[in-house]
Design brief:
This protein is α/β, with parallel strands linked by helices and 139 residues long. It has one domain: Rossmann fold. The chain contains 4 helices and 6 strands, in the order E-E-H-E-H-E-H-E-H-E. The chain has a 6-stranded mixed beta sheet, with helices on both faces. Helix 3 (88-98) packs parallel to helix 4 (114-129). It is globular, with a radius of gyration of 14 Å.
């Protein structure tokens, strides 16, 4: 379910680069599925991003590959995997600028709990500060 679109309208020339932050949750899967569909329609590239706060990155690339494997149609889309360390919303915004993303597709977490409240605030920070359109989706 698409919940929200913020920032400016996507450039009329189309979408060339889509940034999809992931935490490997079900809502992140929904965001990735929507991004894959948009990328296929627009011949766009996806940057799948995971930001580490505390843990090591050892198995995260494999987790990203498994997440992509859930969507057979992803084989027809160029997907670049990236792991960063730092404050999650800051690294998402940095990646958006560096990759010159036309669109960020990010999950909204609707459940309660301190960690989920944190992720919800990440989504809100990205919506407010991104220099491109942001599509917020929920599972």
């Amino acid at each position: 379910m698409v919940n929200d679109i913020s920032c400016s309208e996507v450039d009329r020339k189309g979408i060339k680069t889509i940034l999809v932050p992931t935490d490997f949750s079900e809502p992140s899967d929904v965001a990735l599925q929507i991004a894959i569909d948009l990328a296929k329609q627009q011949s766009a590239k996806i940057h799948l991003l995971h930001v580490l706060r505390f843990r090591q990155a050892e198995d995260k690339i494999e987790m990203m590959q498994r997440q992509i494997a859930k969507f057979p149609e992803a084989k027809s889309v160029e997907i670049v995997l990236e792991i960063r360390k730092g404050k999650i919303h800051e690294e998402i915004l940095n990646a958006q600028t560096e990759k010159n993303a036309d669109l960020v597709v990010i999950a909204r977490h609707n459940k309660t709990g301190s960690l989920l409240t944190y992720f919800r605030s990440v989504t809100e920070q990205v919506k407010k500060k991104a220099q491109c359109s942001v599509l917020v989706v929920g599972a």
